[in-house]
Amino acid sequence: MTGKQRSLFRAEANALQAILQIGKGGVEENLVKQVDDALEARELIKIKALETCPDDAKTAAETLAAKTGADIIQVVGRTIVLWRKSEKLAREKEAREVREAREVKASREAAEKQGRNAAKKDARKPRRGGKRNAAK
């Protein structure tokens, strides 16, 4: 991960609320499963290490990152930000883009068809006026 990417994720994480907390049990399998599920659903998550956590935040972040395959974006105080690319979200994004492209194409075709119909209608309209209106 490049520094620029990390910087963008840091900026995005600013607006996030912590969705998980590491308590007195530390980094257990149950917590790892929750972090894994959250990363799959959101890609970028913020975790808070409580004062009762036996590990410091940096150690907990390294452990979670190793067990979930995530990248550590930042650790500030007791706050941890993790990121992992989600295949599910990537597929959903691709499907949404394809659907939007189809909708745009359909709306363009409809607009072109309306334009052609309007042009045909104008061509069929008899012109009014002629010499009588010109004299006035």
- How large a portion of the residues is in β-strands, by DSSP E? 5-15%
Shape verdict: rod-shaped
Radius of gyration: 29 Å
Mean pLDDT across residues: 87
Point out poorly predicted stretches. none
Total individual domains:
2
Largest sheet: 4 strands, mixed
CATH fold node name of the largest domain: Translation Initiation Factor IF3
Distance between the termini: 78 Å
**From the coordinates shown, what is the CATH architecture of the largest domain?**
2-Layer Sandwich
What is the CATH top level name of the largest domain? Answer: Alpha Beta
Count helical runs. Answer: 5
Report the structural category: alpha+beta
CATH superfamily of the largest domain: YhbY-like
Secondary structure tally: strands: 4
Element pattern in H and E: HEHEHEEHH
